[in-house]
Design brief:
Anoctamin_TM, four-stranded antiparallel β-sheet, 3 domains, alpha+beta, Anoctamin
């Protein structure tokens, strides 16, 4: 029986090796045969598949195998009394099951698979000689087999496989379920993809639902002519939008904590939001060896040395941030302002179109260069774990995109005060940019997949063999040819969620910071996000490989960016209202202008004070945590008292014997 409770094995990992020209007669020497035997010794269920250009080894792990690996990894899991305890196979019924009924989450199973796959070493007393396609490989004593075969280019890749039954179920209930608009099977997404992707779709769904209210207000403001009352209605709309954004960010925190309480995520996993990578664990920050040596030899200097090392690390991060900011101001800002100025002064639409094409081509390279520099700087920071490094990347790269996306709009809005050009630019960004981005992010992976299939067939046809013999019949080979879910910048630290969150943050900034200039923007964003939910789901289920899971259980740095954009929105919209109110540009302190300035300060106070009014956790989450803590303390204290009383009885018996 497998981990899901079914008799039929569920193959969740694939190992790719090239097809051989020379077949070894003796299987004890053959690399592929030895690898299969070693996998079977580790407790895997193994199936070999011969594809068109490669061979594939599919792996499935029964519950006993996963349980053994979990015990070796000392994975802590949520128990029925709410405590997180180290997993033991014999006490499996004491642990909380996943929403789909399985014992282990996808992230935990991924860790166990990696531990077992990359845990095969030569434990014999002598080195072994293996052969593959006429090539000899020496497997030394204590050497890792998978890493050895990867270094010899015999194992091309190890990657997670889709569960076809669950994938088709999610296609029906999620990706193709358009009439439900924002409703999604979040628990099933968590069970299949892990916490990080489920949190993203929960955030996207809640954000889209909340968008419906300002979208209705914005459309009303656009369709009804308020005449002279428009200068009163616009500030009211602005106040409503800011209050809406503040409430959304606070209520999302409540939603996030409720989801974490509902899912059996270990507190250790939530605290160390690490990101498992095939073949190795993403390294958390560790103190340098010289500090540990000093700590062991002279404990008196422990605090001083660690204090110094901590602040040196903070100064290094500050230095890196300063480098990025300096680069944005000195290199990217002049480029963006030059483009915005030329777009303003040029009269020909054809020349404007050509200028925009050159700009878009050049800005992609500038952003990629900035991203690469950011990654190199981050690698030298002493961040606690990979999620902290990913957050650092988010802040740095968002600065590049913030300048790229908004500086031209600021130029039109605040310097030239060209309201018609501002609305035109906003419509172009919201309609053309988002639609084109949706088309590209879904069509490009499919084109890459089709091109890979064509290349495989073309190579076979070059050998003079008939085309009809080479149809992709095996699912594992099709999945191998699909693109991975990777980030466009910093794929060493982030996956495809980086681009999805970035797109959402830039959209939020666009509709919030210029809400008074173009109120219907919220309606465009709502429609786009309804489509985004289904197209992103379709992309994950049908176009891309199954992503590597991430244990992080919050949106991380992106929530701070949303908070920053709310603050920016208060300032930019007040500036727009001042501009509309003071048409002559005399900037007199009249009642209307004074009211706008007072309103700005009041909204800033509300922004910082609302978190005190709405708690970040629902009452039932706090009550459950207190209940579980009390139960755990009662059980621990009873066991401690029994051990103490048992020890005293033993001492009394020993004294009587004496």
């Amino acid at each position: 029986m497998n981990e899901h409770g079914n008799e039929e094995p569920v193959f969740e990992f694939g190992v790719v090796i090239p097809r051989r020209v020379v077949q070894e007669k003796d299987e004890s020497w053959d690399c592929a045969s030895v690898l299969v035997k070693e996998f079977e010794k580790m407790g895997f269920i193994v199936e070999r598949v011969v594809g068109i250009a490669d061979e594939f080894i599919k792996l499935a792990a029964p519950l006993e195998t996963l349980g053994r690996a979990a015990a070796e990894l000392q994975i802590k899991k949520r128990t029925l009394i709410g405590m997180d305890l180290q997993f033991e196979v014999e006490e499996v019924e004491a642990f909380v099951k996943q929403p789909d009924g399985s014992v282990f989450s996808w992230c935990e199973r991924f860790q166990c698979y990696c531990h077992l796959i990359y845990g095969i070493v030569n434990n014999s007393k002598s080195a072994k000689t293996l052969k593959f396609d006429g090539k000899e490989i020496h497997w030394e004593i204590g050497e890792n087999l998978l890493q050895k075969l990867e270094s010899e280019n015999i194992v091309k890749q190890v990657f997670p496989l889709h569960d076809e039954k669950k994938r088709k179920k999610l296609l029906r209930s999620w990706a193709l379920h358009w009439w439900d608009l924002t409703n999604q099977p979040i628990d099933e997404i968590y069970s299949y993809y892990g916490a990080k992707i489920a949190i993203y779709f929960a955030f996207l769904g809640m954000f889209t639902r909340w968008l419906l209210f300002p979208a209705a207000c914005g459309l009303t403001l656009q369709l009804i002519d308020f005449g002279s009352l428009r200068l009163v209605v616009l500030p009211a709309f602005f106040i409503i939008v800011i209050l809406w954004a503040i409430m959304f960010s606070q209520f999302w925190k409540r939603k996030n904590s409720a989801l974490l309480a509902r899912w059996p995520i270990s507190s250790a996993v939530a605290a160390d939001q690490g990101y498992k990578i095939l073949g190795r664990k993403a390294s958390s920050w560790q103190p340098p060896m010289e500090l540990l040596k000093v700590f062991e030899s002279d404990r008196a200097k422990e605090k001083e040395i660690f204090h110094r090392h901590e602040w040196l690390g903070r100064l290094m991060r500050f230095r890196n941030d300063a480098i990025i900011i300096f680069g944005i101001i000195c290199l990217q800002l002049p480029f963006e302002l030059a483009y915005a100025h030329l777009y303003e002064v040029l009269g020909s639409d054809l020349i404007k179109f050509g200028l925009t094409a050159v700009y878009l081509f050049a800005i992609q390279y500038i952003t990629k260069i900035g991203g690469k520099v950011s990654v190199k700087l981050i690698m030298n920071e002493n961040n606690e774990n990979t999620e902290k490094r990913a957050d650092s990347l988010v802040y740095k790269v968002f600065g590049l995109y913030f300048m790229q996306t908004y500086i031209g709009i600021f130029y039109h809005a605040l310097l030239h005060r060209n309201f018609s050009t501002l609305r035109q630019v906003l419509i172009q960004r919201l309609l053309l940019s988002e639609v084109l981005e949706n088309l590209l992010e879904n069509s490009l992976p499919y084109l890459k997949y089709s091109y890979k299939k064509y290349r495989v067939r073309h190579k076979k046809n070059e050998k003079g063999e008939a085309r009809e013999k080479f149809q992709f019949t095996s699912r594992v080979e099709k999945e191998y040819l699909k693109p991975s879910y990777s980030a466009s910048i910093g794929e060493e630290l982030e996956d495809g969620l980086f681009d999805d969150f970035l797109e959402l943050a830039l959209q939020f900034g666009m509709i919030m910071m210029f809400a008074c200039a173009f109120p219907p923007a919220f309606a465009f964003a709502a429609v786009n996000n309804v489509m985004e939910i289904r197209t992103d789901a379709l992309k994950l289920l049908a176009i891309l490989r199954r992503p590597v899971p991430r244990a992080a259980a919050t949106v991380g740095a992106w929530l701070n960016i949303f908070q920053f954009l709310i603050l920016m929105s208060i300032c930019t919209n007040c500036a727009l209202l001042v501009w509309l109110y003071d048409e002559e540009g005399k900037w007199k302190i009249e009642p209307g202008l004074a009211a706008i300035l007072i309103m700005e300060h009041v909204l800033l106070l509300i922004k910082f004070g609302f978190s005190r009014f709405v708690p970040e956790e629902p009452a039932w989450v706090r009550a459950n945590r207190v209940k579980h803590t009390t139960q755990a303390q009662d059980i621990c204290s009873k066991k401690l008292l029994r051990s103490i009383s048992g020890g005293e009885k033993t001492l009394m018996e020993e004294k009587k014997l004496e």
